Amino acid sequence: MKFKIVARILGLLLIFLAVAMLLPIPFSLYYGDSDYIALLISSGISLSVGIIPLLIRKNEKEKKELRAKEGFAVVTLAWIVFSAFGALPFVIDGAIPSYTDAFFETMSGFSATGATILTDVEAMPHGLMFWRSLTHWLGGMGIIVLSLAILPFLGVGGMQLFKAEVPGPVVDKLSPRITETAKILWSVYVLFTAGETILLMLGDMSFFDALCHSFGTMATGGFSTKNASIGSYGSAYIDYVIFIFMVIAGTNFSLHYRMLKGSFRAVWKSEEFRFYISIIIGATLLIGIDVYARNYTNIFETLQYTLFQVAAIITTTGYGTADYETWSSSSQAILFLLMFVGGCAGSTGGGMKVLRFYLLFKFVYSEIVKLIHPQAIVPVRIGGTVVDRKVMTNIAGFFVLFMIITGFGIIIMSYMGLDFPSAAGAVAATINNIGPGLGQVGPTDNYAFIPTGGKWLLSFFMLVGRLEVFTVIILLAPSFWRK
Amino acid sequence: MKFKIVARILGLLLIFLAVAMLLPIPFSLYYGDSDYIALLISSGISLSVGIIPLLIRKNEKEKKELRAKEGFAVVTLAWIVFSAFGALPFVIDGAIPSYTDAFFETMSGFSATGATILTDVEAMPHGLMFWRSLTHWLGGMGIIVLSLAILPFLGVGGMQLFKAEVPGPVVDKLSPRITETAKILWSVYVLFTAGETILLMLGDMSFFDALCHSFGTMATGGFSTKNASIGSYGSAYIDYVIFIFMVIAGTNFSLHYRMLKGSFRAVWKSEEFRFYISIIIGATLLIGIDVYARNYTNIFETLQYTLFQVAAIITTTGYGTADYETWSSSSQAILFLLMFVGGCAGSTGGGMKVLRFYLLFKFVYSEIVKLIHPQAIVPVRIGGTVVDRKVMTNIAGFFVLFMIITGFGIIIMSYMGLDFPSAAGAVAATINNIGPGLGQVGPTDNYAFIPTGGKWLLSFFMLVGRLEVFTVIILLAPSFWRK
Q1: Is A407 on the interface with B (CB under 8 A)?
Q2: Contact B372 A474 (CB under 8 A)
Q3: What is the average pLDDT value for chain A, to the nearest integer?
Q4: Which terminal residue of chain A, N or C, has fewer Cβ atoms less than 10 Å from its own Cβ?
């Protein structure tokens, strides 16, 4: 492990975080809150600590190129460091007195999970409220990806860093240069965020709330500035605007880029995109029929709430307009399974990703055909090309590992005193980066009551989910540290 | 598909079932019950129907050898036919008036699940009670395996039939001849059943109850002759005898054979066996610590109930001495996960099998190592030999398919009105062939209240679980029926 290079990159990223912490200050001042002080202090601390590794004398003999394993280490550590320092403003201000709670909230922010320990969101001062939503936005498209886009000197080993933060099964390079790809992704992201903000303001939302909710949508995060989340507006217009942008955020961003360049055919040709839309339509129909007579009085209301909730869960945003725990248990079961599906590969959505599920279905079918015709060679194809065996094996391994972690997670959360649906809900809602779960951590509840150990574990799950499991887990393997 | 040969084999097996139906009659007569009439009539019906395909003129030109796909079709159909006709005595006698209920109970019997729709087991006449336990015993080691052992003319395509009924990831041939292997397996099975019966009688159990409970143990079935299952005896001796035989029944029978031939080293050298024992010890410790202060007054009582319940679940027997729903939610979560682990490959236990889990853990680790060292070749090994890639891929596919079926099963059972833990419990308890689940289908409940459609679906899951998924599911693939 080239510890010096790792430390230098982390130092650079920390300075970058210190700058980001200054962005909420105008809002603090505008609304006459005093939380800008905590933001300034935290920014100063982050800056001071970030400079230290840069002062260490460079060892010119060391190669600058990062190996795969260093890429994983840098990215995982960067996310931990960001959450550790990003939590400071909340603690210093006193808005969240417990450091554990502040770390949980910040990791929930950066990982675009949206699980909160706040019992009264609206009591938060505006600077910190903005910071909370900004963590979503920075983490949603990826801190490292952003750094690659705007800090060209990170180009050293940029590909390794990119692959560790965006580890999806298939890398869709939009440009041969990784910094160029990062710039494209972030430009599309900024564009959509601006568009949603304007559309929400047209629906009589304040600029502040519109911006924060757009951050939460495009990152598929879910933090709201309101205690009752999006439901507090009671506006079909706002519901549908956010619904559309949730679906956009859960789509592969390289498709958006292609579409913006005029290639609509690329979008419709994407098997993953069609599968994604089919699941949304299918789940909406199944749940809609179920909740129509039971919970709502007419079809329009049913459609509004069902579409929103299905998109909020599958894209792993986690915004709420309805208390789905009042829906029937079958509708809840469908939502619970959708939690694991998640957004498309290359989107800001969490979960296991639509592409992985699509390929797993094809993989299982190919195994069945192999049993029928033992001599046949049955490759898995997508978009007309054969999926490499190594990629398929990796996806299967991903699924198994994801399930093992979820299983053990449920046992440990049960030890913390949660009943079975709540434990399953808490683990699913964090490892899939959704936010609200089931039972005691349902859409109208929060994570405040979870014991300290549980909050750290769930924070770990959010990290594991955001970095798609392997990037984090390999750091725990003994052979990672062996020479 | 060679329909004529398939029909002839099914006819032969049905005649075999007709003979088996006569075995409970002595018990009916001894206890002065009148249910022997229903058994005789059912036997007559099975015999008459079974003869029909044998009367069709043989087509000498057809090759007698079965292809893989015919093996799968014969075995799946045989299990359905056995349950369909095996249910007749209950309906004809009137002990179970509904045919749906009787089919559920019989499939639960043959598949060694042990889920019951009976609200008062003890009201059942003795002949039918014996028949109910006998279905466990016949299905536990395998109807087809038994047929191969005693009906040499089935040798035609015997290997294909054997592989379809005992589809474990690795075939451990005890003899180059498949009929020889079947004979060995059944001899060991009979020996242990006899041994357990004697030991239970030494604990003051009647011969009838001892035999029925031995059938239920060695098949890892779980039907009891008592309403309160094994708990009704309140005897530590009986609990430990059954505990030991449950562990034996969940062990690979080829290991027993080797041990009986004096090779104790083979047992201890088996990585799967060591993993199996480690899980039992680990789970007992975790649960024991949890329930010690909460539910029991001393260590001996804790150990007695915990060991029994852990073994009853992991081996998928499903006998009960304690109402584990009064245990904490973490202990219940551990038991829920153990349901999926199941017995060893080549045992009578259900579930996904210890060997598959063991290899999946190794597979995931090899995927992690591959990420650290992208150029390395990292095969999965067991017992010093490399596991073939095809086998490993098949196991991964098995796991994915198992989870997909479980997920959809939970949704459908929720539609039937079950809450989330009950739906998850009902699906897990049937697809893993356990019996009791959680919530409304917990250890003190039964399946009587499930709607008709749910009973048929759960019966299907029992079949899917017993034949290890692929054998049944490939019959649903369109390419199975294509020429």
Answers
A1: yes
A2: yes
A3: 92
A4: C
Q: Where are the alpha helices (DSSP H) in B111-229?
A: 126-141, 143-150, 158-165, 178-202, 207-218
Q: Would you list the DSSP string of B329-383? A: HHHHHHHHHHHHH-S-TTSS--SS-HHHHHHHHHHHHHHHHHHHSTT-----EET
B residues 408-467 lying closer than 8 A (beta carbon) to A: 410-412, 414-415, 417-421, 423, 438
B68-79 pLDDT, tens digit each: 888 889 999 999
φ, ψ of residue B59 to 5 degrees: the values are -100, 105
Contact at CB, A470 and B367, closer than 8 angstroms: yes
Q: Residue B334, by phi and psi: left (phi above 0), alpha (psi -120 to 50) or beta?
A: alpha
pLDDT tens for each residue of A49-94:
999 998 887 665 555 677 788 889 999 999 999 999 999 999 999 9
Rg (CA), chain A: 22
CA distance A218 to A220: 5
Average pLDDT, chain B: 92
- B133–chain A nearest CA distance, Å: 33
Q: Chain B partners of A390 at a C-beta cutoff of 8 Å?
A: 370
Is the ipTM higher than 0.90? The answer is yes
The pLDDT tens digits for A227-248 are: 999 999 999 999 999 999 999 9
Model confidence, pTM = 0.94
Spatial contact of A120 and A228, defined as CB atoms under 8 Å apart? no
Of A360, A394, A419, the CB nearest to B329: A419
pLDDT of residue A280: 98
Euclidean distance between CA atoms A25 and A40, whole angstroms: 8
Closest-CA residue in chain B for A70?
Answer: B372
Query: Residue B404 and residue A473: Cβ atoms within 8 Å?
Result: no
Q: What pLDDT, on the 0 to 100 scale, is given for residue A180?
A: 87
What pLDDT, in 10s, does the model give residues B178-200? 888 889 999 999 999 999 999 99
Q: How many CB atoms lie within 10 A of CB B446?
A: 19
Answer for the pair B336, B386: CB distance below 8 angstroms, yes or no: no
d(CA B405, CA B462): 12
